[in-house]
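Late entry, shikimate-3-phosphate complex.
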Amino acid sequence: MSSKKIFPMNNIAGQITVPGDKSITHRAILLSAIASGCSEITNYANGKDCLSTLQLVQDLGVNVEQSSEQLRIYGVGKYGLKNPLNALDCGNSGTTMRLAMGLLSGANITCKLVGDSSLSTRPMMRVARPLQQMGAQIILKNAQTAPVSILEQQKLEGICYRMPIASAQVKSAILLAGLYAQTPTTIIESIITRNHTETLFSMFGVTCTHSNNQINLPITQVLKATNIIIPGDFSSAAFWLVAGLIIEKSSLNLMQVGLNPTRTGLLQILQLMGANIEIEMTHQHPEPVGNIYVRTSKLNNITIPAHLISLAIDEFPILFVAAAYAKGTTEIRGLAELRVKETDRISAMVNNLTALGVKIVELDDGVIIEGGAIRGGTVDSFGDHRIAMAMCIAGLVANSPVTITNIDVVNISYPNFFKTLDRLKHEC
Ligand code: S3P
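Prediction complete; structure with ligand written out below:
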């Protein structure tokens, strides 16, 4: 396990293209696998998480041609997947495991899904319960976690499910199982979450309607192969967005980033904090895409509107860094879900920011952060890619170097993160 020493920067400037969106890539791979025909997925996310999904469909008998830019996936149709020879390894990826549970529930497949030590502690009953209600045969370890065993089942019933928690992974697992159901599926979401499954459904010719808080999926026949150009991942852009705001005399242009409003809560939060950000929308395929222009700004802490929390769910580690640097004290609540991410992100960020001299108090479901200076020191990634990158950005504005241990984990979502950082250093 390696570590990285980050030195403070006086300014940061340049143009950045971030990797393709991880959430969209997972879904594009899974849907291509059960479509009829060959789908081309360009600018796919090449971090370890999406490679776990890619390996998973290959282990289920799907042929894939892979270049650095593009995937060609030869779909086998809804009932064409084959029983895998070995356990399907989802690595660190919660999205792979939870979405695969939904996809495989009615696909007439018997298999076992396993994950690394972090994934093996994450809650899976939230997904298994509604799938079991649809008729899936799923067995969890201690009725809670992975390994997840799925037994052959071809007949699922639709469900009308009121989401008890805000989770796009749970919603998506139900929708994927709904593709195999003999009756329609309805999901009622009281809190909006990312809607990539719904938008990709329409690209594969699946009708899925959304009105008010209700998503309706009729009985589905076939999915047709399609071509998708994946936009840049807003959650990867988020690190540079905050860097450009809090490092003095900075100016960053983030190009071709996915700007689906169910993902961009952080933009709205930062704008409420006083951020100087300009957006230029460029096109709409498969979802809104555009360029983000960021300039150094004086940030003030604010009360974060509750409705923005699920729309910024992966961005809290980097938002905590922005809040630690901003003027004033901020209390953020409603973050209980952060405790069951790749690590307990509340506790990891409290530990790390405290080690860098930030006054931060841990609450059950959030934090209180007092803005001020960040000092140098040593922190840990806690095996979580977003904690690792958030602490790198903290290191760029600290008053002396910050060392982050167990740093390789950035490869989960952003293998070129340090290449980009080095290039920006040389350009400044
Ligand atoms: C994701 C949904 C979110 C998010 C995760 C990716 C997805 O998880 O945190 O990184 O692609 O559906 P939850 O559904 O657990 O909120």
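Residues 230 and 295 are 26 Å apart (CA to CA). Will revisit in the morning.
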